[in-house]
Amino acid sequence: QVFSFYTYNYNKATIMLINRDIICTEDLTKEEILSIIQLATKMKKDPNNEKWVNCMSHKNFIMLFFSPSVRTHLSFSTAATALGGHAQYITAAMGRFKSRFVDGETIEDVAQVMSKFSCGIGIRIMENEISFYGEGNDIIREYAKWAEVPVINMADDKCHPCQAMADVMGWAEWLKNKSSEEANLECLRGKKLLLTWGKGTLARSWNSPQAALLLASRLGLNITIARPDGYDLDTEICHKVKDYCHLNSANFSIIDDPDEGYKDADIVYSRHWLSSNAYVDGHLQKQVETDQALNLKDWMTTKKKMEWTNNAIFTHPMPVDRDNEVESEVASGSRSAIYTIAENRLHIGKAVLALTMGNL
User: What is the DSSP letter of 29?
Assistant: First the structure.
């Protein structure tokens, strides 16, 4: 489904999202996605509006972190508090969770019990906590199957819906009007997004780049993916992105040149991600991935490369591996949108909580 954002039925979309899981933007209609981004924009401009400051009063949101985070933890805990509720932080080490390698409680039991203590469950599971690509997404969907409350994907190895919505919200603010009280994503249509692989030490999942691609292609952006041999993203997702571009009469290309894609780019998204051979016998080969990546020295976003763009903004979901993925001068430069997008994680989190489990 492609997008036209000029009008939407806010009340209808709000009703449709109550008690809904948010696992991937692919599971949401254009109205539902827009209702989240529009409400996030309003909350950013008017954080103390009586319409939402108590919409989670006396409600508890459980955050289950298999994988660590700064922005995700802070954004959702702050969001719940700002809406009058409470966010409860839990790690896998705080319980006995069954996995391929450890005996413990089944997902059915954990999800059912958590449902008795909360209005919703957020889960984050990536890289070192899984044994093959897609397992993290499968686990979150298994929680959603058994939970009696909404399940929010706070990042798995395949997708990161809240990050993607914060991304496009931030891109639109930079390219249109930061002070607007309405989200105008139409300004993104026809812009060129370069998603470029960057050398780095953090050995990260495909989630954020893939989530950004899925949403950007539905919005009508022209897409160029630049990556070295061996670093292809999920084939099925790339096919969906290509199809969305075709439906929007937008360009789509995948290249293996570290420089070519910068020409005429409006948005440069540089990030390291794992190779397609990252898991061996159920284990992430992190040191191998890191050593292999650092040898690809041409794959870094630099000030010189940014000069080849159409005065592009620089975007990154963070944490940034400075002077590996991108020169620090670019990440901290006047065209860097990284802090705007990081802030937007709070407002998207507030909108997601309010629309799926709040009393608006």
Answer: -
